[in-house]
Amino acid sequence: MPYKKVWGRRLLTREVAQLPKEILNQVTYQRITGIVKQSKQIICQRCGQITQQQEAKLNEEEYYCPHCLFLGRNDTTQELWLFDQPALFPRQIIFTWDKTLTIEQAKIAQRLTTQVTDHHLIWAVTGAGKTEILYPLLQLFLAAGKRVAIASPRVDVCQELWLRFTTVFPEEKIVLLHGKQQVPYTFSSFVICTTHQLYRFYHAFDLLVVDEIDAFPYVRDKGLQYATETAKKLDGQLIYLTATPDERLLKEIRRKFQIHYLPLRFHQRLLPEPQLIFWNNWRQCLNKRKKMNPLIKKIQKLVKDNHVLVFCPSIELMNELQIKLAEWLPTTTITSVSSKDKKRQEKVQAMRHQKYDVLLTTMILERGVTFENISVLVLGAEHEVFTKSALVQIAGRADRKGEFSNSQVCFYYHEKTRAIKKAVKEIKMMNKAGKLLQ
Ligand SMILES: [Zn+2]
């Protein structure tokens, strides 16, 4: 059924031209200009961003939007085609989950399903099980014949979410969409996608959930926030999920969104608080066995109880460290994984099966992955890639699952940055609130 390729979509003339012609006789749609010209500015109808005309010139007469160029150029030669989608019928939903929500999760789930506000933010600590809170709401929406989507800025997170939801909703056809996906789009009442894909939907979702709103690039990207608001239906419900909200975003949304806190983890234990370890000029020590003793001794101690994740600020440094550690710790199994690693999926999977004692990594494992029996080390925590949000997420990789195994979190730093201080403060604050619920 070719018309299923366009229901609820927001496409450029160029994209529509690639579809079979008969589709346009089978569906209803409206067409709007892609770019609106206004005195010295242009407004993009796809991402909502305003650009000065002189920065958006294609030639003497035509203009384009530089903000959403990566989606295929939207310019004054294009129209945006906004396709309607049919109403769906109520149906029976098969839901298979062998666990139950904690009392605190259930309370939030209950509030989401009964309250009239249509903008919610769930602020739940890492490992609290914020995804599970959505289960009752998703069942309700799907059973009523409504359309739902879960979006995340990170492809890895989308993949993890897809695996989890296809397991608990085994009969649902859940479409997974991201930039690296080669399968063409087709209509489905359950969509999991990267936030960038939301630019291609228009008034499509009755329920839209954006996971990890503090992750790059969603945070501070007005275009993505515009895409989110317009991808959902006008009366649709929007839910933001985060473990560590960006302060500015929190300020902006405070009036519109109802905020739900979940400060205690699924297993009811508090978050491991990071040990801050000052290491003067650690970078100069990498080649010297003796000077690396603080790290080597720590790893030897930690691997007795747990597997160890070592976060490095760059791939280059990670590779250098891996060679040295392999030499200095010959009986320890060590590997590394980064965004440039072709075997990254396999390695992450092997780590899940506890195949390595030590896994060196960069920011790719900052969020969205759960390993059992893990301690976490951050080398060079002062580096700019380690924002407050990243550090809270990284610390949150420890002690997520299973029995308590003496998981530890250590930040090695040369300089105590604002991000380090704020991350520790936020973790302590959530633990204070969590203690009251224990
Ligand atoms: Zn644009």
From TrEMBL:
The keyword DNA-binding applies. Pfam families: Helicase_C, ResIII. Keywords: ATP-binding, DNA-binding, Helicase, Hydrolase, Nucleotide-binding. GO terms for molecular function: helicase activity. Residues 111-263 form the Helicase ATP-binding domain. Residues 291-438 form the Helicase C-terminal domain. It comes from the Bacteria. Gene3D superfamilies: P-loop containing nucleotide triphosphate hydrolases. This is DEAD/DEAH box helicase family protein.
